[in-house]
Amino acid sequence: GRGVDGLERGLNARLASGSAAQLSLAMRVHYVLESQVDAARKKYGALAAGGIVMNVNTGEVLAMASLPDTPEDAQKGIDPRRNRMAQDDYELGSVFKIFSFALALEDHTTGMDELLPVGSGFKIDKYTIRDAERMPAMMKARDILAQSSNAGTAQIALRSGPDRQRAFLASLGLLEAPHSELAEWSRPILPRHWGQVETATIGFGHGISVSPLAFVTAASIVVNGGRRITPTFLKQDGDRRGEQVIKPATSAGM
């Protein structure tokens, strides 16, 4: 009768007081998500995998999968009770590029049809940022996002600079722990020094680690009209978007 982890622990006081708790989780959505996550884990031979589906207008988590989750996996040294989507931080890589482009649209630092040099890589300090795949010599900004160019995104991120980039990510809630009804959560891992090189690499998702739940919440703000939401595992009635974080035009453009 007492929850020891997950939602059962997070909602324990509420349930113990006799209050009802209707969850936002959708069984069919969760089944599809978990099936796809399991298939991807097997395809790539990953030790663990996970995924989240969120309603961007309410913050409701419709599904959350963290695999493996069976007692048999504990014998392999993998904790099946660990919720990696809320409890672990990751350098999420290229998905972070959407924040660099949202900031560029917000501050009008880059036009989506502007051409930038990409193919030979981008030099900063003593480093050269290159792409895993061969890219054209010049690319439009919109194609830099579509083709996921690190060299191009780094240039776009640097136009905002360290202070503005940090403030923008903070406004999306990425520099603090996302709290929900789950008992588990994690604080992000931030660079000790946030300079030009860090700005370039954070632009394409390296040098900063956040939980997948924090990322999904921030990404939802980018596409929901630019308004703040809070992740929740409880059923909600109607729109729960809060204050304006980015301009509606920025959100529409993204």
Question: Can you walk me through this structure?
Answer:
With 254 residues, the chain is mainly alpha-helical. Helices cover 40% and strands 10% of the residues. A two-stranded antiparallel ribbon has the order 1-2. The protein has a two-stranded antiparallel sheet with strand order 3-6. Strand 1 and strand 2 (61-67) form a beta hairpin.
- Structural class by helix and strand composition: mainly alpha
The rounded distance between the terminal residues' Cα atoms is 46 Å
The chain-level mean pLDDT equals 95
Low-pLDDT residue spans? none
Provide the β-strand percentage band: 5-15%
Strands of the widest sheet, in order across it, are 1-2
Number of DSSP E strands: 6
- State the major sheet: 2 strands, antiparallel
Order of helices and strands: HHHEEHHHEEEEHHHHH
Percent helix range: 25-40%
What is the rounded Rg? 20 Å
User: How many DSSP helices?
Assistant: 11
Could you say which overall geometry the principal axes of the C-alpha atoms support? globular
How do the helices and strands line up, and which of them pair or pack?
Layout: H1 6-10, H2 12-16, H3 27-44, E1 49-54, E2 61-67, H4 71-74, H5 84-87, H6 97-107, E3 115-117, E4 122-124, E5 127-129, E6 138-140, H7 141-146, H8 150-171, H9 196-203, H10 212-223, H11 248-253
Helix pairs in contact: 6-8, 8-9
